[in-house]
Amino acid sequence: MAATLIRTKAYCFIVKGEAVLLTEDERSPGWKLPGGGLKKGETICQGLLREVVEEVNFVVQPTGLVQIQEYKNKKDKPTLRFYFVGQWQSGDLKLAIGEVKKAKWFSRLELASLKQEDFWYEPYYQAVQAYLQGVYYPLDLLKELNINKEEDEI
């Protein structure tokens, strides 16, 4: 039986003060979180930090894990998405040219008022709902589960 590769992605609820940053991509209408796919050899947190810098030019400090989602993407490929909370540390907002069209800071109340159709893809909406519940897991959980790598075989 052939191994199935699982695509791994990491996204961040970037928190600055009382606000959270959402972005919209050039190619896809609707809100999403900064982040994306890991590169070969990256840990989940390394990929998260790289993606945040690439997309919005921010340095963040991950503080917790909000949610892990397992699903099949739009191409029917198995995918794991890791959603983190991260505190903004430094950087001026600079959107990745040709990738990110806009970004907006949302208060918790504004986040709570968003509907599923406001997001590019349903998993982002689900992650926002989990974030709003305020229960975050320690980052050490990734080490304990031994899943801090680019691709796993199942």
Task: Describe it.
The chain has 154 residues and is an alpha+beta fold. It has a single domain (7-138), classed as Nucleoside Triphosphate Pyrophosphohydrolase (Alpha-Beta Complex). 24% of the residues lie in helices and 36% in strands. It has four helices and six strands, in the order E-E-E-H-E-E-E-H-H-H. It has helices at residues 44-56, 108-113, 122-133, 140-145; strands at 7-16, 19-25, 35-37, 59-72, 78-90, 100-107. The radius of gyration is 15 Å and the shape is globular. The N and C termini lie close together (10 Å).
What's this, in brief?
The protein contains four helices and six strands; from the N terminus they run E-E-E-H-E-E-E-H-H-H. By secondary structure, it is α+β, with helices and mostly antiparallel strands.
For this entry, give a set of tags.
154 residues, alpha+beta, Nucleoside Triphosphate Pyrophosphohydrolase, six-stranded mixed β-sheet, 4 helices, globular
